[in-house]
Design brief:
This protein is of the alpha+beta class. The chain is built from 7 helices and 4 strands, in the order H-H-H-H-H-E-H-E-E-H-E. Strands 2-3-1-4 form a 4-stranded antiparallel sheet, covered by helices on one side. A hairpin with a 6-residue loop joins strand 2 and strand 3. Helix 4 packs across helix 5. The termini are far apart.
Length: about 180
């Protein structure tokens, strides 16, 4: 009888991922944490989807050098873990975006007013992004409107909001690229 067979009989162990004994799978990095190669594949998968979220699973599998089922499993896990929070559509400039105006507004807040201001900003559909900042300004807000009058109304509404100390606005002229 071979040595490994005797050892297996004397030392029972549970099977881990890939049918390997758990101590083997943990030793080679298949326990709770992903192997560095797996993490690189996950990053590549996210990069591919960031460039074009409509890339087919078969194309992604070919690019990554793995099976379609592997890509599908990784994608499901990344969604479940919150790494991929959703998918979106970017409207091309030939389909209505050039008729709209976009602006960014930098907002300086009064002390301890961030929660109230962000809650009010969230209610306006024209406000499409809001970020907290380090530095002199506290918030970065991106808005989209159809007319300059509407844009001016939104900027004034933000500037007059309770808790806003001061704002600085810039109209976005041309998108050079977006990821």
């Amino acid at each position: 009888m071979a040595t490994w067979q005797r050892a297996e009989r004397r030392l029972p162990f549970r099977r881990g991922r890939a049918g390997l004994p758990s101590f083997v799978s943990e030793t080679i990095g298949m326990g709770d944490m992903a192997r560095p190669a797996d993490a690189r594949k996950d990053q590549e998968l996210v990069s591919i989807l960031t460039a074009n979220a409509r890339t087919s699973l078969a194309e992604i599998a070919k690019m990554l050098g793995v099976s379609r089922a592997t890509v599908q499993g990784r994608l499901a896990r990344l969604e479940r873990e919150g790494v991929i929070a959703g998918y979106t559509t970017i409207i091309g400039k030939d389909h209505g975006q050039e008729a709209s105006l976009a602006a960014v507004i930098m907002i300086e807040l009064e002390v301890k007013q961030q929660g109230n201001v962000v809650a009010l900003l969230r209610k306006r559909p024209e406000i499409i992004q809001c970020y907290t900042l380090s530095g002199h300004f506290d918030l970065f807000v991106k808005i989209r409107c159809t007319t300059s009058t509407h844009l001016d109304e939104i900027i004034d509404w933000i500037a007059e909001m309770e808790g806003v100390r001061r704002t600085t606005s810039s109209i976005l002229l041309a998108r050079k690229f977006e990821r």
